[in-house]
C-alpha cells in the first residue's frame, strides 16, 4: 500500500469493503473483538478485497494518525487467527500521510467463507457502511455461494419414500 492508493481510498465513501476507524484499543478484549468483528464482516461481504483504515476520523475523513508501536502486524494477525474460524487472510501496512502514520488492514478475498467469530459463534456482514450480525438466510446464502451446502446434500426430514422420483435414476 502506498500513499497514492491510500489517497484514492480516502476519496471513497465507507461501504461493504471499506471502513475508516480512528483507532482500536487492542489492549482490551473488547477492542480485539471489535477488530475481529470488522474483519469478519468485510471478509463475508460480496466483492474482492476490502480495507480497514486506522487513524482516520469516521465521518470527516480527517487524518488523525495512529501510534505505530500500539499496532504491529504480528499482533493483528494473531488476534484475527485466534478469533476467526476459518482465519481470514489479511495484511497490515503503515503509510505516512500528512506527517502522520496511518494503518491499513487489507482483508483479502476469501474462498473459505463464511467466517465466524469463535468467541460468540456469530457471523458478521457489512450492510452498507455498518457491521451487523448476519441473518439466518444470509448465512445459508454464504454457505451455498461457496459450495459448502448444496440442495443435493441437504437432509430432508419427514419425507416419505413416495416422494422419491425413482424413474430419474
Automatic annotation (TrEMBL):
Pfam families: SLFN_AlbA_2
Listed InterPro entries: Schlafen_AlbA_2_dom, Schlafen_AlbA_2_dom_sf
Stretches assigned to the Schlafen AlbA-2 domain: 14-133
Protein name as annotated: Schlafen AlbA-2 domain-containing protein
Amino acid at each position: 500500500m502506498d500513499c497514492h492508493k491510500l489517497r484514492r481510498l480516502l476519496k471513497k465513501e465507507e461501504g461493504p469493503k471499506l471502513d475508516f476507524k480512528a483507532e482500536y484499543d487492542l489492549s482490551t478484549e473488547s477492542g480485539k473483538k471489535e477488530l475481529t468483528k470488522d474483519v469478519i464482516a468485510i471478509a463475508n461481504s460480496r466483492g474482492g478485497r476490502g480495507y480497514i483504515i486506522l487513524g482516520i476520523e469516521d465521518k470527516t475523513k480527517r487524518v488523525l494518525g495512529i501510534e505505530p508501536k500500539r499496532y504491529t502486524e504480528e499482533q493483528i494477525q494473531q488476534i484475527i487467527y485466534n478469533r476467526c474460524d476459518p482465519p481470514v487472510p489479511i495484511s497490515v501496512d503503515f503509510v505516512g500521510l500528512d506527517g502522520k502514520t496511518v494503518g491499513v488492514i487489507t482483508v483479502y478475498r476469501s474462498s473459505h467463507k463464511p467466517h465466524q467469530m469463535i468467541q460468540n459463534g456469530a457471523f458478521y456482514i457489512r450492510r452498507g457502511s455498518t457491521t451487523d450480525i448476519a441473518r439466518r438466510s444470509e448465512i445459508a446464502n454464504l454457505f451455498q455461494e461457496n459450495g459448502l451446502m448444496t440442495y443435493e446434500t441437504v437432509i430432508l426430514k419427514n419425507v416419505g419414500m413416495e416422494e422419491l422420483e425413482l424413474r430419474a435414476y
